[in-house]
Structures are given as C-alpha cells and as structure tokens.
Design a protein that fits this description.
Shape: globular
Distance between the termini: 50 Å
Helix content: 10-25%
Strand content: 25-35%
Bound molecules: zinc ion
Number of helices: 9
Order of helices and strands: EEHEEEHEEEEEEHHEEHHHEHEHE
Structural class: alpha+beta
CATH topology of one domain: CNF1/YfiH-like putative cysteine hydrolases
Largest sheet: 6 strands, mixed
CATH superfamily of one domain: CNF1/YfiH-like putative cysteine hydrolases
Radius of gyration: 21 Å
Strand order of the largest sheet: 1-2-3-16-9-6
CATH class of one domain: Alpha Beta
CATH architecture of one domain: 4-Layer Sandwich
C-alpha cells in the first residue's frame, strides 16, 4: 500500500529564507526574500507585530554600477536621484511600509539626535533619530558604519543610530538611550537593540592614535582594539627578531572593533546583554551582499536600516 506523501513546505512563499545565498547569517538573524529584495531580519524584532524594520542588502535595485543592478539608497555623486527614489520605494514596499513617511538624516558623524513627531519638510542634520509616532519610518544610511536600531516593546517607541568611529567616540548610542528615557519614559532593561552589518575588526584598520582617544573616553577603550598590535600581549615576533624588550617600534595601525565599542556603551546605558543582537557579517568581507566604503571607495552604494511603528496594531 502506497504511503501518503508528506506535505511539502511551500517554497514559493515570498518570505522564505534563501538557502542558496553566498552568505548565510547565523543565529537570530535571517536573510529573507521580500518582493524581490533580500532583507536582513531579526527574530526578536519579528515577534512584535506593530514593528516595521529591516536592514537592506545590495541587490535588487535600479541603480547600475560596474554592470550590476544595485539597491543604492543614498543620493551619491555617481547615481541618479530618480533611481535612488525608486530604490527607496522598493525597499518600503518590500517591508510592507509604502504608506510610511521615510525620514532619513543628513548624517555628519555627530552626536546630534532628532526627535520626530511628524513627517519632516526638510532633512535634518544628525546621526540618530527617535519616535513614538506611528507612520514614521526612521532611516539610517551606512556603508561600513554600525547601523543600530533600538526598540522599546513596552512603550512602543523606536530609535535608529548611525555609529561610525566619531559617533561612537561621542557616545551616540548611549545618548540615544538617554533620549528614549527622557521622551518616552523607556526603561533601559526593556530595550532591544540590533546592530546590523558593519565593518568588522577583521577589516577596520585605523591609526594607532585611536587607542589613546578611545582609552581616554572609555574605561575599557583599549579592549576595542586587537591586543597583539596594541602591545597588551607578548609579541611572539620579538623572539624571532631578537630585539630587546621595549625596543619594538610602535604599531602605526590597529584594528578597531566598532561593534564591541557600541555593545559596551549599550550595556553601560543599562541594556541587558540578552537583549543585544549583533550581526557578525562584515560589510568589507561581504561585498557580494552589502556595500563597503572601505573596500569600494567613493563609488560605493549605501545600505539602509529602517524602523517604524505601524498604525492599528
Ligand atoms: Zn572583514
């Protein structure tokens, strides 16, 4: 007797995770196809029905560069404004957020934080934004810097942060949590934070002076850098070169871990470790999937991290 066939999963669904992708994120992160685009999503955010959010990826847009079709989401010298607008339209449609007012910032690597209470007529200067008003879509543009989304499930409030090295040094993540407490009565222990794809410590080479700058601002600042090159660990090469201790030339460059620095800031601001979700996807290692200014130079596109609150949920 023939056994009944087991029912097969419906792979035609447009929201499936794609197992054929060159880069498969691990743990709570998932890459999903949404209306022809690939969006990086987080399980902990997906459970909140009132929340709209997503981290964009490289492919699927109408911009063209080096013969590729790209989803460039920022007005850059090499791209046409109409194409960027079409790309933004597609991303909003992919997130089922076409009716939202998109609110990007004129990012300047500062610690300026904008509270949005209504759609803005002009794009304000700043590097973080927050709102508790439904229908507004906060947007951060990156190509290596850390895109950080913060969600308060209790108060239904959201924030988006752009944290490069300058913003990180200026404590923009910590200050944004402070502003959420001030405006929405958020309790840091309730907050969920997602750090999207950014340049990893594998690829983020900076001048050695950065160690002093960060150490003067943060008690654990030295730990954001690779220890072998900051001189904290014994250097095995000293044995080989037979140079006497203390005569090793100081390193000119070090590698900075921006994720670790921002994680540390969020913990200091009172967030719980279990509520921090940090993507380990490096934008410079994965230009198949993301944009990297370090790797690609001025003719690189920009990714977007979006977060907003749905009406009637
Ligand atoms: Zn890397």
């Amino acid at each position: 007797m023939a056994r009944p066939k087991a029912s097969r999963p419906n792979f035609a669904s447009r929201n499936q995770t794609d197992p054929t992708l060159p880069t498969s994120p691990q743990g709570p992160w998932k890459l999903r196809k949404r209306n022809g685009l690939l969006v990086l999503e987080l399980e902990a955010f997906g459970r909140l029905r009132w929340l709209v959010y997503g981290f964009s990826t490289r492919a699927g847009g109408v911009s063209t560069l080096h013969g590729q079709s790209l989803l460039n989401l920022s007005y850059t010298d090499w791209d046409l404004n109409q194409r960027v607008e079409e790309n933004r339209f597609r991303l909003q449609r992919a997130l089922d957020a076409s009716e939202f007012a998109l609110l990007p910032l004129r990012q300047i690597h500062s610690d300026l934080i904008e509270l949005f209470t209504a759609p803005a007529a002009r794009t304000p200067h700043g590097d973080a934004s927050l709102t508790s008003r439904p229908g507004l879509l906060l947007a951060i543009q990156t190509a290596d810097c850390v895109p950080l989304l913060v969600v308060d499930p209790k108060r239904r409030a959201v924030a988006a942060v752009h944290a490069g090295w300058r913003g990180t040094l200026a404590r923009i993540a910590e200050k944004t949590v402070g502003r959420m407490q001030l405006h929405f009565g958020s309790k840091p222990r309730d907050l969920l934070a997602a750090l999207g794809p950014s340049i990893g410590p594998c690829c983020y080479e900076v001048a050695a002076e950065f160690v002093t700058q960060f150490s003067s601002q943060f008690a654990d600042g030295a730990s954001y850098f690779d220890s072998a090159r900051t001189g904290e660990e014994p250097n095995p090469l000293e044995w080989l070169s037979q140079m006497p201790p203390g005569h090793r030339p100081p390193p000119k460059t070090v590698h900075l871990d921006l994720r670790k620095a921002n994680r540390s800031q969020l913990l200091a601001a009172g967030l719980a470790e279990r509520n921090l979700f940090i993507s380990d996807l490096c934008t410079a290692c994965h230009t198949d999937l993301f944009f990297s200014y370090r790797k690609e130079g001025p003719r690189s596109g920009r990714l977007m991290a979006l977060v907003g609150i749905r009406r009637h949920q």
